[in-house]
């Protein structure tokens, strides 16, 4: 497909916007989506702008879209955490052999307890944990490592070891 000069310039602006959004903290995927939305909006709109004002208009629309998505995602995660991480929604496991383990997990700090529960008891991946808790992959891995370390200390203090829970 052959693009004319106008479309080539718009594509250049869209790439520039994508890089700008990534530098501002947006994920690469969100930045590409937003810049594509802005590009499509520009091509579909019947707005007649002088070429020198088009770039500023596209940036303004991109920033507004990013803020809207950020607010929507933030509200979504708040609803998820409020509705799905209540005590009555926690699944109780029936095996009496694991009771000391569950009690030790309950003694962990909440941030470690959540990550350990999601990873080991709910079988979620690190990527899924990041999405559920709204944290980065490195934060999830660090919390998981620290939670395991604290859990091991608690269990060893009570006289339990790894072999007791196989």
Let me know the largest β-sheet: none
Which percent bin holds the helix content?
over 70%
Spans with pLDDT under 50 lasting ≥5 residues? none
Oligomeric grouping of the chains: single chain
User: If helices are DSSP runs of H or I spanning 4 or more residues, what is the number of helices?
Assistant: 7
CA distance, first residue to last residue:
60 Å
- The H-and-E topology, N to C, reads as HHHHHHH
* SS class: mainly alpha
Summarize model confidence as the mean pLDDT.
Answer: 81
Q: How many domains is the backbone divided into?
A: 2
What does the overall shape look like?
A: rod-shaped
Radius of gyration: 24 Å
Kindly state the number of beta strands. 0
| DSSP strand content | under 5%
In short:
This protein is mainly α.
Outline the structure in words.
It is built from seven helices and no strands. The protein is mainly alpha-helical and 166 residues long. It has two domains: 80 residues, no CATH class; 79 residues, Arc Repressor Mutant, subunit A (Orthogonal Bundle), CATH 1.10.10. α5 crosses α7. It starts with a helix and ends in a 9-residue tail after the last helix.
Provide tags for this entry.
166 residues, Arc Repressor Mutant, subunit A, mainly alpha, single chain
SSE diagram, text form:
Blueprint: H1 5-23, H2 28-44, H3 51-84, H4 99-107, H5 110-121, H6 126-133, H7 137-157
Helix pairs in contact: 1-2, 1-3, 2-3, 5-7, 6-7
């Amino acid at each position: 497909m052959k693009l004319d000069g106008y479309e080539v310039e718009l594509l250049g602006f869209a790439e520039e916007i994508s890089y700008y959004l990534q530098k501002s903290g947006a994920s690469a995927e969100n930045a590409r989506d937003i810049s594509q939305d802005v590009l499509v909006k520009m091509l579909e709109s019947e707005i007649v702008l002088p070429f020198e004002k088009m770039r500023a208009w596209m940036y303004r629309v991109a920033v507004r879209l990013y803020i809207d998505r950020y607010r929507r995602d933030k509200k979504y995660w708040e609803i998820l955490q409020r509705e799905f991480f209540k005590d009555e929604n926690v699944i109780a496991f029936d095996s009496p052999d694991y009771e000391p383990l569950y009690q030790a997990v309950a003694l962990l700090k909440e941030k470690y307890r959540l990550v350990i529960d999601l990873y080991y008891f709910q079988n979620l991946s690190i990527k899924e944990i990041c999405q559920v808790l709204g944290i980065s992959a490195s934060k999830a891995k660090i919390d998981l490592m620290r939670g395991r370390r604290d859990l091991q200390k608690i269990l060893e203090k009570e006289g339990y070891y790894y072999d007791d829970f196989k």
